[in-house]
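Dear Dr. H.,

I hope your travels went smoothly. While you were away I took the liberty of generating a structure for the chain from your last submission, since the lab meeting agenda had it listed for discussion. I wanted you to have the full record in hand beforehand rather than looking at slides cold. The sequence, exactly as received, is reproduced here:
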Amino acid sequence: MPTQEAVVEALKKVKFPGLSRDIVSFGFVRDVKVDGGDVSFTIHFQSENPSVGQQLSRDAEAAVRAVPGVQNVRVQLEVAQRQMPSAMPGAQSGMLEGVRFKIAVASGKGGVGKSTVSTNLSLALRGLGYTVGLLDADIYGPSQQMMLGIEGRPQIDDRDEKIIPMENHGVKTMSLGLITDPDTPVIWRGPMVMKALDQFLTDVKWGTLDFMIIDLPPGTGDAQLTLTQKVPLTGAVVVTTPQDVALIDARKGLAMFRKVNVPVLGIIENMSYFICRHCGQREEIFGHGGGKRTAEMLGVPFLGEVPIDPKVVIGGDTGEPIVVLDPESAAAKAFQELAVQIARQVESGLAGHTHGEPEHAHTH
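The corresponding predicted structure, in token form, is as follows:
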């Protein structure tokens, strides 16, 4: 006779459409019951795309029927409509309304390469065929104009007096660095910062885009909280490095997003390791595995490791990010994989679903 364990093992072979993770590790399988040759279980998940449920039901039934001794299979499907970000308290649905997916890139502390990740993620998504905008919301340390190699000042459309974003490498961009003197520090109080961000959100002609990547300031201050509450974000990516001090701050960033109901798409570990160009040996300068352990501890996806590469620095300084400068490099491939994972999550409607140990046991 089949056992509960054998049924669950069979269901581990059923992948969610478009993703590499199975429905058991996602925590979608509940109430597995085995009575002789009769098997019943429930598949429960949240999605903005309920039609995938029928495919899951068919795949799960086929997988369980293949278990020796199984005669009858009853699958109960429960698809809950996930609350859209625009319906969240405080979010203003008119913000960036021509943008399908709005992704914030954040870090708990400065110096972890958040802007580098934002730039290369934008270009990697562009490489997948998406239309992409990049909003540099780091008011005190704007850098996207340099990283994307954009010079000059943005123009104003005479018809509606809106700012036309500047563009390079196929990515539309707006940054305070495009409208201020690069040698003059930004010494603004909170209300002035928010006024500038409001203008970037409402007075820039972003048009229709698939993705908007928002490069947030480091930390968890007023600007971050206000922006995440004001814009109906699809999700957020948290950037960290392997050191314990960076990981402590990354946890604070994750806690902030959870407080304001923004789904966390995952953690990316930047400056993860270094490959010696002479001997090919891998050196883990800042330690190893901290990002992955933090992701597992907090129940969010680990999106990957980006190695240290001198070309990342060169590309950021010359306006040719690594994804453009050397697309075959290990660092560029890490950013490309990051883009693929994020695109799959948001396209499937599973953005921000908890990975890791689910709240409900797989069997009861």
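Two observations you may find useful: DSSP finds eleven helices and 15 strands in the chain. The first helix runs from residue 4 to 11.

With kind regards,
E. W.
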